[in-house]
Design brief:
This protein is 37% helix and 26% strand. It has 243 residues and is an alpha/beta fold. 40% of the residues are buried.
Length: 243
């Protein structure tokens, strides 16, 4: 469902004016009904990778196909197949939660988004805030509305960039349960996080990236065998510190 081959993104350093690769030759794949974890320290290239896969920025080299759509040849097809969410996903403050979800449903081509909107209000437990302007919602409620915005068109692929950062324990738990439901529904989920317990709980396969390069990819058991470490935190440290 997602196939990435040699994905590379270059920038120019603002101080030295020297070019550098934020992502360098990244290659991996993810399948339906699978949560694929992307782990790495700050500056590792995780967000850049997910922004490329979401068509927000263009790669300089490499290719990727998303649900059969070529990343650069058919970006509209890619966007119709994904739901993208990060901690910085914006909402329109003047629209109510209900209005915003329906609005993005129409943008994604849902002919009548009202039934889907009402179902999501119940599924994500935000009905009591349905008619509250988004600007007046708490951080947790805003993130729930952002989830609904991302999936109102029922996409087969979810791209989630550290979505639980800054959330309280209860809202984060709701979000993790949502990811588990998405996997059970047969969706493919790309999930970036700094929280090792989340990755251990959710991820069927894990990629560790550092300085824009892939250090290892596999199941948790495969990474344990490769590193000789048991806990994911120790696995992560051994892979990053060894470079």
């Amino acid at each position: 469902m997602i196939d990435v081959q040699g994905l590379t993104k270059r920038y120019v350093h603002p101080s030295t004016r020297e070019p550098f690769e934020a992502v360098s030759g990244l290659t991996f794949s993810a399948e339906p009904g699978q949560v694929f974890g992307l782990l790495g320290p700050n500056g590792a290239g995780k967000t850049t990778t997910l922004r490329m896969l979401s068509t927000l920025i263009s790669p300089d080299e490499g290719r990727a196909t998303i649900a059969g759509h070529d990343l650069q040849g058919d970006p509209a097809g890619v966007r119709s197949s994904i739901g993208y969410l990060s901690t910085t996903t914006g909402l329109y403050d003047r629209l109510t939660a209900r209005e915003l979800i329906a609005y993005f449903g129409r943008l994604q081509g849902v002919e009548d988004p009202r039934p889907r909107t009402e179902a999501l209000l119940d599924r994500l437990d935000i009905r009591r805030f349905a008619d509250v302007p988004c600007g007046n919602l708490s951080t947790g409620m805003k993130q729930k509305v952002s989830i609904a915005r991302a999936i109102v068109h029922d996409p087969p692929i979810l791209i989630l960039d550290e979505p639980t950062t800054g959330l309280d324990v209860l809202v984060a738990q709701t979000f993790l349960e949502f990811i588990e439901e998405a996997r059970s529904d047969g969706r493919c989920v790309i999930f970036s996080t700094h929280i090792m317990s989340e990755a251990e709980r959710l991820c069927d396969r894990i990629a560790v990236v550092h300085q824009g390069r892939l250090r290892a990819v596999g199941t948790l058991e495969e990474l344990r065998t490769q590193t000789g470490e048991h806990y994911l935190e120790r696995i992560f440290i051994s892979l990053v510190d060894g470079t």
